[in-house]
Amino acid sequence: MTTGHDSLQDNQQSFIAHLLELRDRLLRIVVAVLLVFLALAYYSNDIYQLLAKPLLANLIPHGGSMIATEVASSFFVPIKLAMIVAVFVAMPYILYQVWAFIAPGLYRHERKMILPLLVASIILFYTGVAFAYFLIFPVVFAFFTATAPAGVAVMTDIGHYLDFALALFFAFGVSFEVPIATILLVWSGVVTPKTLSEKRPYVIVGVFIVGAVLTPPDVFSQTMLAIPMWLLFEAGLFFSRYFVRAKENGAGEGDMDEILDDYAHDEDELRNKESK
Length: 276
Hints:
Blueprint: H1 4-41, H2 44-56, H3 73-89, H4 91-102, H5 108-146, H6 158-175, H7 178-187, H8 193-198, H9 200-214, H10 219-249, H11 256-275
């Protein structure tokens, strides 16, 4: 017969075991990031040059350069970037360690639903960063350098440029998580796919407002962010029906034909309501 004292002792041992496992996984994460950083540190200047390429290509006159206003910034700024890139590169392994820690505490159908979301979230974040670097950066820096007053040479400090680039990377990476946020809102029961379909006009206005805030004040760059965010919202709205049906089934599976029927039915109802 188990006494209350034995039960308390078992709980304490279980708690300590979880803390030890958490410590081990955090150490693995730190070691992984450190190893990647050590591999990248030697190439830190080259990595920074790659980051600065979109700005340098648009400096006027052509062939302009950046400046370092602090005594040690020419050394520490590239090293800081190398550390950030190391975390970025090691992110799949970091998320694996997080997943391995929390997965035993989840039900089977929860694991089958959360794992795809976890993988999709990191892919979408990478996609948002790539979108910012390859498409937004050239437009942003061409706009900024072209609108500089006459007689003003654009010579950006390397530290300020890194902070600006990281802010844009984070903003676009988070913006591309719209499908995940949509699915989680529906899965948690905060909203329903039908409700989101009815709120679509407000969402479209919202993404254009976000695009105006995160990009230079021109219609082209604003649209370049707003349209992908809207399409990602539509993707999240569509796939959220899968997770709703999976939650109802309790097995992590949904029938695609039924999901398509639900989507078409909601859209028909919305059009009929708007026509009235």
